[in-house]
Amino acid sequence: xSDTVKMTEAARRRLEEEVEKLEGEGRRxxxxxxxxxxxxxxxxxxxxxxxxxxxxxxxxxxxARMRDQLRSAEIMEAVHGDTIGMGSKVTYADxxxxxxxxxxxxxxxxxxxxxxxxxxxxPVGEALSGAREGDERKLETPRGAQTVRxxxxxxx
Length: 156
What we know:
By secondary structure, the chain is of the alpha/beta class. It has 3 helices and 7 strands. It is about 40% helix and about 25% strand. A 5-stranded mixed sheet has the order 5-4-3-7-6. A hairpin with a 2-residue loop joins strand 6 (about 135-140) and strand 7. The model has no long low-confidence stretch (mean pLDDT about 90).
């Protein structure tokens, strides 16, 4: 991974805990499953053994991805003041339709638009970063450029 992965300190700690759990408990479970399947006979025709080995390989790939994220982590802290940044809860309105949207800007690793958590690296996050209440920003979308107006900004 060549780019940095933006995350909060809390997200970094959660990721480290998850890696530790997978490297311990996860690996142990996969090894036990492989051992049990190995006892079932001929390994060439043992589907359970091959499935267990595939699961173990997927676990190792997941651990490697998570370790890579930790190595390239850039810790982002919440902003304070009146400008939009990490952790800001922002309500903005489409200048054309007047439709309002509210999101909290978070690192990509914590984004969940369905729960109102939008990546600060998303087009909307990038467009709104640094803005203040009342500011208008241009947002590039697949349907073309649109202008959005910041309605409110709440800091954590």
